[in-house]
Amino acid sequence: MPKKQNIKKKVKATKKPKIKKGSRMPLREKKIQEIKKKLIVQRKALIAEAIDALNELPGQTTFPDLGDQASAEIDRSFMLRLRGRERKLLKKIEDAIERIDQGTFGICDRCGEEINIKRLEARPVTTMCIECKTQQEEEEKLMET
To answer: Most buried among 50, 58, 71, 80, using CB within 10 Å?
Structure first.
């Protein structure tokens, strides 16, 4: 009876791609972290501007001329409206940072799909993909008419 020979095939070991130091994070995740840094800088700038604006906001003053009085009121109203918009933007920035921390940033609120990274870079406070946002705007236009 012939002896069984142990036949071992030489298998070439496939080389694993070398992971460069610092590149362990997927590209999308890196971009999201860059967006977070920009959002934090933007938040700090908005807060600093708001503090400066509160210190510079003219109080209720009375002018002898009604035209001057009206002009001052319009300026004050305009400044307050700008602060209101900045306050809303600040809230959106804080929400975006929170979503990044929770791992839900970049997911469309409406359809649940990933939002294109270029859209996130252009408008980091967005909560909808371009398709859903376009659809929402079209629906709003229909409601107005």
So the answer is: 50
